[in-house]
Amino acid sequence: VTTPEVTSRLSSYRCLAKTSPCLERFFTEKHEWVNVNGPWGTVGISNHAQEALGDVVYVQPPEVGQELNQGSECGAVESVKAASEIYSPVSGVVEEINNTLEDKPALINTSCYDDGWIFKLRLSKPEELKSLMNEKAYEAFLKTAAH
């Protein structure tokens, strides 16, 4: 008999045995991403979004403690040629912001999926992840005219 606790432990062991990270990245149609690790999500903008914006010069993250709903506007990214709102890919409470972006906003251009993350939140509705695209689906989405 496999209990949820055992299943969770087995999944963790499987992840440790892999060479790639266990985090799965999900995307929105507005080009935000979220990496999920248990109840925590790390949020940023996609490579496609940063390429479209150009050189990022300013990032306005949400406030720590702010409650966000999926799809709600929660910040902005400004570049030398454009500005774009940030929308939360999932609902939750902001637990941390990437303070490094205050002095080094260009990290979004050079490392949008790693050092250029914007904020971390505690997910309040993990079931919302089902409405997001995995990386393969997002890549297919980018090839359509819908974006």
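[next item in queue]
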Amino acid sequence: MVSAWACTESKCDQKVLLLHGEVDGLSLDWVRYRIRQELKKDPDVKTVCIASPGGTSSEAMEIADIIYKHAFDTCLASKYKPDIEGAEDIRGLCQSACIWMILAGRERILYDKNLVMGFHAARNKTGGRADEDLDMYNERVAIYTHLRPKAEPEAWKLAGLTWWAFHQGATSETKDCTANELNRKYPYFTEDRSLPAPPDRSCRMQGPYEVKRSFK
């Protein structure tokens, strides 16, 4: 986790904490420590952005719980500038378990509608679909959104997104969709700070009233 600037298409002016890379093997104590250290340097930072290909579902959601308990906002951008002299830019990325980590934010901020996000089902140790993780994700989403103005319908709609993602298969391949299409279909981002975008190529994402909420 590093201090960074989140970028829109035209500027990089939002100071954030950036969690980047795979979440597998990240110590929760290490994440808590890094948050404490960064907040000592800049206590006014209230947003955690994530740039990650995902990782183990349980570990990802434990980190998301830390974000939630700190009442951080979350965000996604296509590019981040680390607040370290000479450091290279970090490309925005959100796939697999990262999708559900973002939902832990008090507000969920989008900086680029063209960001591509990757969806698939969680996998178990034998490579099959981890159906129990679907329930875990939806239970967490209900917790994370319970203080929202329309908490129950929002959680119900976002549960549809979980079902849709799990219907995309449990291989390492992801179904790639733009953040723009996602936010047209679901109440995923609560604040959009990106520039207007032209119509994008559809990934044929199903909305909450279309998706099948069973595996039968």
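[queue empty]
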